């Protein structure tokens, strides 16, 4: 890795969904896809699900960029936004931070000790917003995406600044997530790929969820995936508009408010500091 890449970083996580966060407000940071993969590599690099750069922005606290571990830059990352929001509020001493992303402006606010709420904006529900390759009812797709008895029911699609498809299943432990996830991620119905959620509704206020993330694989938690699952469930009247999402790494509270904005609340943690090689 080039000498120009050498700079401090923070390793952070939101419910085990982990990030390498780089300060880029004083020195530009434009890693190549190969450099992103090297940083994210858990065997020879630092290891992370996503790489995050905090850049200067006009009229906001910061502009933030996200790369998945496969090297692709993406528009949104819910848990990553929550972690960055916590850093910005710690630095400013304020209780709110406005963050510019490729998915739009997001507002983070303190919600308790190391708890952060992020207004993730309005979900995209039209097939063109996901996007899909052709017109479908995103509430319940009438196309079979993967042949397995646990996935027979129609999935739903939601955009939270990035594309999501959500399957509602009776027994999450019976779903072949590691086999179905990558196959569905690359299904031709999704020209930009898709994050794949597998949700088991416990009751009107609780959903258990696992997410195969586009470009990152199976992670312990996915913030935008939790938002998408709640929206998809509420649209099908499987839950109320506020529910706790139980992920492998912990819990997120998701509230799809009456103004159509989705609010995600959960923890942010700093693991360690280091320097990029």
Report on this model:
There is one protein chain. It is built from 4 helices and 17 strands. By secondary structure, the chain is α+β, with helices and mostly antiparallel strands. It folds into 2 domains: 3-121 and 266-275, Roll (Diaminopimelate Epimerase, Chain A, domain 1), CATH 3.10.310.10; 149-260, Diaminopimelate Epimerase, Chain A, domain 1 (Roll). The chain has a 17-stranded mixed sheet that branches. A hairpin with a 4-residue loop joins β4 and β5. The longest helix has 15 residues, at 78-92. The radius of gyration is 18 Å and the shape is globular.
Main sheet? Answer: 17 strands, mixed
CATH H-level superfamily title of the largest domain = Diaminopimelate Epimerase, Chain A, domain 1
First-last Cα distance: 7 Å
What's the CATH architecture name of the largest domain?
A: Roll
Give a brief rundown of this model:
Helix content is 16%, strand content 38%.
Spell out the key features of this protein.
277 residues, alpha+beta, Diaminopimelate Epimerase, Chain A, domain 1, 2 domains, 17-stranded mixed beta sheet, 16% helix, 38% strand, globular
Fold blueprint:
Elements: E1 8-14, E2 17-23, H1 33-40, E3 50-55, E4 62-68, E5 73-74, H2 78-92, E6 96-101, E7 104-112, E8 115-119, E9 156-159, E10 163-168, H3 177-185, E11 195-203, E12 206-213, E13 217-218, H4 223-235, E14 242-247, E15 250-256, E16 262-267, E17 269-275
């Amino acid at each position: 890795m080039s000498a120009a890449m050498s700079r401090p970083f923070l390793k952070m996580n939101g419910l085990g969904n982990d990030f390498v966060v780089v300060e880029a407000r004083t020195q530009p940071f434009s890693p190549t896809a190969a450099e992103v993969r090297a940083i994210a590599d858990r065997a020879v690099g630092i290891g992370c699900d996503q790489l995050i750069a905090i850049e200067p922005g006009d009229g906001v606290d910061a502009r933030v960029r996200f790369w998945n571990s496969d090297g692709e830059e993406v528009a949104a990352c819910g848990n990553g936004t929550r972690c960055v929001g916590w850093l910005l509020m710690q630095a400013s001493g304020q209780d709110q931070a406005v963050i510019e992303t490729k998915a739009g402006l997001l507002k983070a606010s303190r919600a308790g000790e190391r708890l952060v709420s992020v207004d993730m904006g309005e979900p995209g529900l039209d097939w063109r917003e996901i996007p899909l390759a052709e017109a479908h009812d995103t509430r319940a797709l009438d196309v079979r995406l993967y042949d397995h008895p646990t996935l027979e029911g129609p999935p739903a699609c939601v955009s939270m600044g990035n594309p999501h498809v959500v399957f509602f299943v009776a027994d999450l432990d019976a779903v072949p997530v590691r086999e179905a996830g990558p196959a569905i991620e690359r299904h031709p119905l999704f020209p930009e790929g898709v994050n794949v959620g597998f949700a088991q509704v416990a009751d009107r206020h609780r959903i258990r969820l696992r997410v195969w993330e586009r470009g990152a694989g199976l992670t312990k938690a996915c913030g935008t995936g939790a938002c998408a699952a709640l929206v998809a469930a509420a649209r099908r009247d499987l839950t109320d508009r506020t529910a706790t999402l139980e992920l492998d790494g912990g819990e997120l509270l998701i509230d799809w408010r009456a103004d159509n904005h989705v609010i995600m609340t959960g923890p942010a943690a700093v693991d360690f500091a280091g320097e990029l090689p």
